[in-house]
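G.,

No rush on this.
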Amino acid sequence: MNDETNEYGPALGAAERHARAWLASVDSRPIRPEADVDAVLAAVDREWQDDGRDAPAVVEELAAIVEPGLLAMGSSRFYGFVIGGAYPAALGADWLVSAWDQNTGSRQSTPGTAAVEEVAAGWLLEALGLPATSGVGFATGATSANMACLVTARDAVLRAHGHDPVQGIQGGPAIRFLAGGAVHTSVVLAGRMAGLGAPVTVGADDQGRIDVDGLARALAGDDGPSIVSLQAGDVHSGSFDDFAGAIAVARAAGAWVHVDGAFGLWAAATPTLAHLVAGLRDADSWATDAHKTLNVPYDCGVAIVRDEAAMSSSLGARAAYLPAAEGVADPWDHVPELSRRARGIPVWAALRTLGRHGVAALVDGLVEAASALADGFRGIPGIDVINDVVFTQVCVAASDDAATAALGDWLRAEGTVWASSSTWRGRAVVRFSVSNRGTDAEAVRRTVDAVARGARALGIPFD
């Protein structure tokens, strides 16, 4: 059956043309959207018609409406959030995932995608240096991955204290949920959704690393169920908690230890950064996001739990009509979803493309680019780099908060780069998150030049 007789052919052909054109433009176009949400809404026919349109016309209409409102997140000079680009093989695999349209929950009903996801999970564990028998679930993002891990942790600590979590948490003992003072909002949200509430924070140093002594004090004198969340990669400084020290303290108190490593967990994939993740392997669960550092398309969070049986007990579902594996977990036993796309397939494609050495080189390259940005920014009068650049995050500030905010606004409006404005340690900052595999020396040069031009245009430094 050719494209002329296949009903999907014309629509897919239109989509491919627009996808190719978009990808070709990403690194040369202004990163900012050309239209705001009101302009896009004005372009949409808001009245639902009685009669529809044919498929290729719908695709053409969609592209015309949406493309002016797109942010070039795949650009090598996009630093606004911790968002990577997409390797060609990972994108191609993701297109196949949509075409195959498999609800990848069961090894029996979707053996093709389930098998490749199992291989991808094994490669992930090897790359990150985590126990090979851990359970791995492909979730929507870091928040849902954190939630999957915290739900498992919640049930495990309740069982350890004599309460059956199947009966709910209301009648069980109170659970202490602790984290450092720089805990990311995704962990806070995940804790709330898991019924733990927001974590009690125990303090952090000036780079956001957990106060291990504060953790010890918080855990002292109470032998009830406890969960401690640590962090691999602070969203502002890029810093890593003292895993060895914090985990030792938590273990002494019988606490479950979870690591939020949305982008920083990948430091474990390269020997050059081993000092940042010493002791990380000794935790009970870990969360990361492959669309960040690994550069696969949205969406692809990864939940990892050392005790796979505990993960399946908390997240798995059983019903008479659902096929179940014998003696091995199904994909839907590792995430809080019965229906999901085969998110692990693009992960397999990226890891297959890169190999062990390629993954290490990817992470090393991101760190080198961040260091080069910091070096360039330090040479701009009136601009200070205010974090210790240990991984992929660089925060800059001008002489006062108003000037810093103005610089962030100028950069986003000018369009060469996109960096996010934030507040860190009580000070306005412009934050550069290096996550894209394409951020090379030329992208660094253009970024430093844009910041220098912005500082001159705004009259920074001020008297």
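When you get to it, here's the other one too:
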Amino acid sequence: MNQKSSGLASGSIWSIIDNLAQQAISFVIFAVLARFLAPDAFGLLTVAHLFILFTRLVVFDAIAMPVIRGGAPDDRLYSWVFTCCAAVALLLTALMFFSAGAVSSMYRAPELKPVLQGMSLSVLFFGLVRAYEARLVRKMMFRQLAVRSIGSVLTGGVVGIALAASGWGPMSLVVQQVTASGLALVLVVAQSRWLPRIVFDRGLSRKYWNDIRQVGLSGVLSFANTNGDSLLVSIFLGPYATGLYNLAKRVTSSVYLVIASSMQKVALPVFSDAGADLSALSRGYLKIVGITLFCVAPLLCFQAVLAEPLVAAVFGAKWLPAAPIVGVLALLYLLSSIVHLNDYLFFSLGRNRVPVLLGIAQLALATLLAVNFYHYGLLGMSLSFCGAYLLVFPISQILLNRALGLKLRAMWYALAPPLVGSLILVLGLLLYLSLIPPGLGNAALVAGGVFIACFLYPFMVAVTGWRIRAVNASWHGLLLSAMRLGRMR
């Protein structure tokens, strides 16, 4: 039991390190590449990457996930996963390569054809590596996965930057991605010290078919919710707008991926420990939401207000058209951090259909609004995606509050400090921008905003929450409880 707990703790730590390191390294590489390349180049890569993400979520994960969740998989079962993924990967690679001309014609972008054909190699590499990943995850060898991810992303980034500086244009991004995925495969094979056999087994196919279909359908919905916006932008507005949208999305989503997703992992044991006790679930939920907003809200508000100097200082003046989109997506991801936490709690309550139905409704609304407002350009489409979240969020919150018997007064006690602090922060930053003398450099402007935010936000949170935290359980108490739980385990 101690060994299992130790392995779980070690795996969690390495998983977090993997996530944080990948986000940090990828963001730095992206910022450097943005200095050398135009938005069109990133837009072309995004279109190709959408196809790869779809295959990973809907095909390869659908084959591998039932095995990871299963009872006691052996090497023969992993070899069957490898055989299925490899066979499908070969077909999808050929499909992507030979359909590149037709897709580029549909997008009216001839330069998209070589990008799609080059990126088709990544589909093959992802298919070949999926069985190895499943085997390492099941054996809780997260350190090896982290080393693989960090090494491949860093190496691919260095290669991509060198080629971009040499004038390779969009193909530098293709070589970067193919190098990273190919090196990831080589490293995993070397770390695993395991070579699969070719195994075709109809019995295993029949046994896992229902699970594969279920995971595949979930993957379709997940892909649509997380990447449907980029797909719609690429279809209606083309590669240039897609590149701008991709930058705005990466800037804002990085906050969500690092902070909000980590808090969702913390939420799972908190909700599990509460069990069917609605009072305990409510307290745990309010604390997790409070901590999440405390960390996420000021960063997103800072990005929204100082988007223009921030984009110009980090990525260059050619990316300034993406600045208004950063402000819109900051609100979207602020709402998203709460909605996804609500989904976790719905699953804990056994109401699994609610998040699925809300996700479908949000996706349908976003698509409907985007189709009607794409004539207003990228800002119109971004507002459409945000508007869909604004319409679905109250429904999600009302349903959850009813399920928990949670009153608005209790929510206000929990969320007032970060919300009031963020509002005052926005007003303070707007005042700062209005009083700043003209001619100040973008870097200096951002640095001054950081100084104001570091002072103003904590001060307002402390003032607002001094008495409220005495009524509602302290956030600091939750962190101490989590630390004690970790020591007990």
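Confidence is low (pLDDT under 50) at residues 1-8, 471-489. The chain has 16 helices and no strands.

Enjoy the weekend,
O.
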